[in-house]
Specification:
348 residues, mainly alpha, Lysozyme, two-stranded antiparallel ribbon, 3% strand, globular
């Protein structure tokens, strides 16, 4: 019995770590996600314990061992330390990992022991705080400045290119895949109460809500009323924000991708057994809000206009009155169909 319970706890920690990695990867640029995922998986295999019990010694030992056979050892060491620190800090910021966990290394800390043998590194996890000082001649200084200048120019070029694509290539971007389609976390389809988020029509409808609420993109799950952002997924931020609208000051504590009021969140979060305000639970609570208005089946069976009519009282961005909803219906349906095309299998 004890062994079974221990195995169950171990499996729960493993699932929790994988869920954290999945959410963390959504904050990483797509071009870097593959390498970050590989490093995170290798780290879990190396330490063989939950992320909540990881220490700075584990991080350094992993970086040292993994870079023994590397031609550019120091560069690989820093990359692995940076990646794991990013994962652990994100876990603490979102409340998934305990903030009382032993302080992890700063990505800028040089803390590798270069004089010990490879076997010593593997056996003892030993590190040092000493940094070897090297003189820098004028030639190296010039090369360093030149490299920095080139990096700045490259960064500006990339930023300008992205701006032009955003302004002139919006239609093409939607065909290839929108930001919101890759931000939504994957949810275990074996759980009955969670399965709807994997249905193309449901997922497209959730994306449509984010468009009308102005919460698209990776930061949508952090958005508050007035456009500001909260910093932790530990709980609904419960911060009252005020803004002028038509000459009147309106205040709300709406937050997240679906702009939940704290009262709505407190009502529906227990239904999905929400542990925090993370993207996974935001998606699930949004589905429960739709279900509560008897609109979930409408969406699943393609009666999208009827769903918008039932839900405008929940999301006023669909229209503040029934007349507004009908006036905005063509735009709402167009947005929904555009998002649905991202999830439906392409015909040969």
């Amino acid at each position: 019995m004890y062994n079974q319970q221990a195995q169950q706890r171990s499996q729960q920690n493993k699932n929790s770590d994988f869920e954290l990695i999945n959410i963390w990867l959504q904050q990483i640029p797509p071009i870097q996600q593959s390498s970050h995922l590989y490093i995170a998986q290798m780290f879990l295999k190396f330490v063989r314990k939950p992320l909540e019990k990881v220490t700075s010694a584990d991080v350094i030992a992993f970086a040292n061992v993994q870079s023994i056979n590397s031609h550019n050892r120091e560069s690989h060491q820093h990359k692995r330390v940076d990646t794991i620190n990013s994962l652990l800090k994100f876990g603490q910021q979102t409340g998934i990992l305990p903030t009382t966990q032993k302080k992890i290394l700063s990505p800028n800390t040089t803390n590798f022991k270069k004089s010990v043998s490879s076997q010593d590194k593997i056996k003892n996890y030993r590190t040092t705080q000493k940094v070897q000082k090297k003189t820098l001649n004028l030639s190296k200084l010039f090369n360093l400045q030149l490299a920095s200048s080139l990096l700045i120019i490259l960064g500006l070029f990339i930023a300008i290119s992205q701006l032009f694509r955003a302004v002139g290539g919006g239609a093409n971007a939607e065909k290839k895949g929108s930001v919101t389609s890759v931000v939504m976390p994957k949810i275990d389809p074996t759980k009955n109460w969670a399965y709807p988020v994997n249905v193309p029509r449901i997922r497209a409808f959730l994306d449509t809500i984010s468009v009308t609420e102005g919460t698209t993109g990776p930061q949508g799950y952090y958005r508050q009323y007035t456009g500001s952002h909260f910093s932790s997924f530990k709980d609904h931020p419960r911060e009252l924000k005020c803004a002028l609208s038509n000459g009147k000051e309106l205040c709300s504590d709406a937050a997240g991708r679906y702009q939940f009021l704290s009262t709505s969140w407190d009502r529906f979060a227990p239904i999905v057994k929400a542990k925090n305000f993370s993207p996974t639970y935001q998606d699930r609570v949004a589905i429960e809000l739709i279900r509560e208005k008897n609109a979930l089946k409408d969406i699943e069976e393609g009666r999208i206009e009827e769903a918008f009519r039932k839900l405008y009282m929940v999301w006023p961005s669909f229209g503040e009155t029934t007349a507004d909803v009908e006036r905005l219906m063509p735009k709402l349906i167009g947005t929904y169909e555009q998002k649905l095309a991202l999830y439906q299998p392409k015909s040969e």
